[in-house]
Design brief:
Layout: E1 2-6, H1 11-20, E2 26-30, H2 44-59, E3 63-72, H3 93-103, E4 111-123, E5 126-138, E6 154-156, H4 170-176, H5 178-191
Parallel strand pairs: 1-2, 1-3
Antiparallel strand pairs: 3-4, 4-5, 5-6
Helix pairs in contact: 4-5
Catalytic activity: dITP + H2O = dIMP + diphosphate + H(+); XTP + H2O = XMP + diphosphate + H(+); ITP + H2O = IMP + diphosphate + H(+)
Binding site for substrate: 8-13, 68, 148-151, 173, 178-179
Subunit structure: Homodimer.
């Protein structure tokens, strides 16, 4: 079995990763303490690496880090790497999602995709990346009670006919989200190391 420490002390996030990986192959546990990492990379890959290396340097154990965001075609420079800070400090997840709806009011091109990049850092010579994406569109209203972030305003391509947001598709999201896809790639690759 491969044991990975998540580059976060967030037990909920570690639990989410543990549920996505096959527990017989890979276990993910939260870091013993939080480290403040300046995420000043220009790509998801760079930010995931910054987090992974910082946690590896501190705890000297294999680490998994992720960086993710929502990329919106009509607002190419506003979300993406800055998704969690969109609109500035002090906003809730719902505030950010509703601000996105407001900015897209009257905009025809609502194409978007979620991206998740995982960095698995075994040591300074063994660093692996896995990317998952979930394509879709930004809807017109805030709907659904599960999920977080932009889930209540994002309609995945596979559910376009039904018009359901990710926040209305909890079970579907567990298998098809950008994070789930990235984990699938990671598990397939890492499983060969066991």
């Amino acid at each position: 079995m491969i044991e990975l420490t998540l580059a976060s002390s967030n037990a909920h996030k570690a639990e989410e990763f543990s549920e996505l990986f096959d527990p017989k192959l890979i276990s993910v546990k939260p870091a013993p303490s939080k480290i403040d990492v300046v995420e000043d990379g220009e790509t998801y890959f760079e930010n995931a690496l910054l987090k992974a290396k910082a946690y590896y340097d501190k705890f000297k154990v294999p680490v998994i880090a992720d960086d993710s965001g929502l990329n919106v075609a009509a607002l190419p420079d506003e979300l993406g790497l800055h998704s969690a800070r969109f609109g500035g400090d002090g906003l809730t997840d719902r505030d950010r999602a509703e601000l996105l709806l407001k900015k897209l009011d009257g905009v025809a091109n609502r194409e978007a995709y979620f991206s998740c990049v995982l960095c698995v850092y075994f040591n300074d010579k063994e660093i692996f990346y896995f990317e998952g994406r979930m394509a879709g569109v930004v809807g017109y209203t805030y709907r659904g009670s599960t999920g977080f972030g932009y889930d209540p305003v994002f309609i995945p391509t596979e559910k376009m006919e039904e018009g359901l947001t990710v926040a209305e598709l909890h079970e579907w999201k567990q298998k098809n989200s950008h994070r789930s896809v990235a984990v699938g790639f990671a598990q397939k690759f890492l499983g060969q190391r066991i």
